[in-house]
């Protein structure tokens, strides 16, 4: 009886020897024609020509050498190019650039917040109706011919409270002498929070019916137009001709600047 195990060992040894010889054999790269060892060709294609790994000539090359290039290596070369070594680097660079652009845009709009839609400096102030504490409706356009500082407030806002007190103590007389009217208008529904009525609020900080200091409550549409971002303390300076000449937040610290803008000083 013939022992076949020896023959099998010889065949395996010959196969491994032939495979090693094939691996050490060199060929020209199908893309750049550089001389490369066959067993290193997949790595060369992946690192040097990542965008060509799924091209027709590379696919043909791989199919013709399926006996010398392993299935795993061929499969790795078919990985989507966005995930190849250099392709992934490009994705990362693109991601970093996109992140920088987003952060830059966010920083710009934080430093330079866009004006509320429909109410821009240099344009005519849209008229709206507000209601006095006694229930009388009044139009902003009724003040045409007189400069106005329109102040949108929330009655639970500490900054608005402090600003009201500052106006009563330090600026009312200046505004009155310059014939500039302050319209202190409560935002619709007090911006969804609970606070006192506008009359009680203002009276607690120095208001007692002074001429040229007008209180009121805005409608939902008026608040949406003049305070679309639900700011707690936002103001507009409207000229006698009805044009918005200035706007900003924090009137308590800007009464002087607003008066100057209203009078053209």
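-> sequence recovered:
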């Amino acid at each position: 009886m013939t022992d076949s195990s020896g023959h099998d060992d010889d065949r395996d040894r010959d196969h491994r020897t032939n495979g090693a010889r094939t691996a050490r054999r060199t060929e020209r790269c199908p893309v750049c024609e550089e001389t490369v060892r066959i067993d290193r060709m997949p790595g060369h294609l992946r690192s040097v020509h990542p965008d060509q790994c799924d091209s027709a000539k590379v696919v043909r090359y791989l199919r013709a050498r399926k006996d010398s290039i392993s299935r795993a290596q061929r499969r790795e070369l078919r990985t989507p190019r966005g995930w190849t070594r250099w392709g992934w680097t490009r994705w990362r660079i693109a991601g970093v650039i996109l992140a920088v652009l987003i952060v830059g845009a966010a920083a710009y709009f934080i430093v330079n917040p866009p004006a509320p839609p429909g109410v821009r400096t240099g344009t005519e102030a849209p008229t709206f109706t507000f209601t006095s504490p006694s229930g009388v409706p009044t139009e902003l356009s009724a003040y045409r011919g007189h400069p106005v500082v329109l102040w949108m407030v929330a009655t639970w806002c500490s900054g608005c409270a402090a600003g009201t007190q500052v106006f009563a103590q330090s600026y009312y007389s200046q505004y009155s002498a310059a014939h500039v009217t302050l319209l202190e208008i409560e935002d619709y529904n007090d911006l969804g929070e609970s606070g006192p009525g506008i009359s009680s609020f203002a009276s607690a900080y120095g208001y007692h019916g002074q001429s040229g200091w007008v209180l009121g409550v805005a409608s939902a549409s008026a608040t949406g137009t003049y305070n679309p971002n639900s700011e707690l303390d936002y103001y507009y300076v409207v000229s006698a001709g009805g044009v918005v000449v200035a706007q900003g937040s924090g009137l308590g610290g800007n009464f002087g600047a607003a008066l100057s803008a209203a009078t053209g000083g």
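Strands lie at 26-28, 35-37, 129-131, 137-139, 148-153, 181-186, 213-218, 233-238, 244-249.
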